[in-house]
Amino acid sequence: MEGCERLSEDEVERAGDVPLIPSLPISGADGEEILRWIGGVVAEDEWQGDVDAPVYRIGPGPGIIKLSYSAKQVISTIQNVIGIIEGTEEPDRFVILGNHRDAWTFGAVDPNSGTAALLEVAERFEKLRKEGWKPRRTIIFCNWDAEEYGLIGSTEWVEENREMLASKVVAYLNVDIAVAGAGFQASATPQLDQLIIEVTKQVEDPDNSSQTVYDAWVKTTKYPKIGRLGGGGSDYAAFVQHIGVPSTDISFGNGYPVYHSMYDDFVWMSKFGDPMFRRHVAAASIWGLVALQLADEEILPFNYSSYVNELQKSAEDLETELSDKSISLIPLFKSIEKMKNAAVRINDEVKIYAPSKHNDYGSKCFPGIDDAVENANKLDTKDSWHSVQHEIWRVSRAITQASLVLHGELT
């Protein structure tokens, strides 16, 4: 932002919040050649290459690499693009659809498949509007800039509008990669699980017109598996982590070989990712239908039984992990029972998902407890295990307070 307060480069370096190790992507061929010259301990299996690759080690030496690095610290202007369809009955309640448009290279998959889907949804909604449709709640389309540089565009926007967004946003619907291959994938905060499942029953499977996306989904798993949003993998991070907004992220395909490379282009997409571009249509359809229901339903289609089930499962897993420790989980289970009783009336977010302290990209339930347990397992001191009990009480209080709010009681 022009005229905003900024830290100098020296202040940034002294703060220690920004990684200071230079990094540069290189080709697989160059990387393999470097790895051939590294000795020392053998790397873990998941770090090893294919059958023809050398055994990868993690060093040190014996090879020596001469590296020249030339870079400049520059301040660049970024631009988010925002479009709004104002609601009629609840214009101060927002349903936000977001996708970023910056790419490391050509970005046919990441992010342009998502950008294409966003434009398609916006165009369909505009056609509906011209035919007389008006959403009950306001719909906001956000095309973010500088996602690849640390989710900057979306995070700055959320921080700048924090108070308004925290009180007015109904849900944030993210699509980063809309299509990278076959197979529907979804992640969400739990209260949106059922809505996603129901919408996939209405959309034709792009790879088999005789069935729905849901039909294809349940063939791969007995029950549709929906992941969790808690880390910093895409632009949902600020909405989930900073302001506790119900959020989703959907796509087709799970991993693809040209990720963040110069081969992520239209040729790859048209030959391998989505030759008929039907998966793009399906992604846009699911995205748009989820948005429509959130924008138009008189009663928001949230289902908090999924939330309670997730809390219960995580608490049971924690109980197993701490079974040989003198740690009481009674307050946690009691608070979850209160939440279970209040779930039918819940209409606000309970923010339990977050990245672990040691993994900003992924997601964990009860991250504070998890980090405390990890630390206690290393130190195995009375104080460290006391910290675990303290974290359990903190989470229990948060869940209990949420339950009281749902019942209309004062905390």
From TrEMBL:
<dbReference type="InterPro" id="IPR036757">
    <property type="entry name" value="TFR-like_dimer_dom_sf"/>
</dbReference>
<dbReference type="GO" id="GO:0004181">
    <property type="term" value="F:metallocarboxypeptidase activity"/>
</dbReference>
<keyword id="KW-1133">Transmembrane helix</keyword>
<dbReference type="Pfam" id="PF04253">
    <property type="entry name" value="TFR_dimer"/>
</dbReference>
<feature type="domain" description="Peptidase M28">
    <location>
        <begin position="80"/>
        <end position="266"/>
    </location>
</feature>
<protein>
    <recommendedName>
        <fullName>glutamate carboxypeptidase II</fullName>
        <ecNumber>3.4.17.21</ecNumber>
    </recommendedName>
</protein>
<dbReference type="InterPro" id="IPR039373">
    <property type="entry name" value="Peptidase_M28B"/>
</dbReference>
<comment type="similarity">
    <text>Belongs to the peptidase M28 family. M28B subfamily.</text>
</comment>
<keyword id="KW-0812">Transmembrane</keyword>
<keyword id="KW-0325">Glycoprotein</keyword>
<feature type="domain" description="Transferrin receptor-like dimerisation">
    <location>
        <begin position="352"/>
        <end position="406"/>
    </location>
</feature>
<dbReference type="InterPro" id="IPR007365">
    <property type="entry name" value="TFR-like_dimer_dom"/>
</dbReference>
<dbReference type="GO" id="GO:0012505">
    <property type="term" value="C:endomembrane system"/>
</dbReference>
<dbReference type="InterPro" id="IPR046450">
    <property type="entry name" value="PA_dom_sf"/>
</dbReference>
<dbReference type="InterPro" id="IPR007484">
    <property type="entry name" value="Peptidase_M28"/>
</dbReference>
<keyword id="KW-0735">Signal-anchor</keyword>
<dbReference type="Pfam" id="PF04389">
    <property type="entry name" value="Peptidase_M28"/>
</dbReference>
<keyword id="KW-0472">Membrane</keyword>
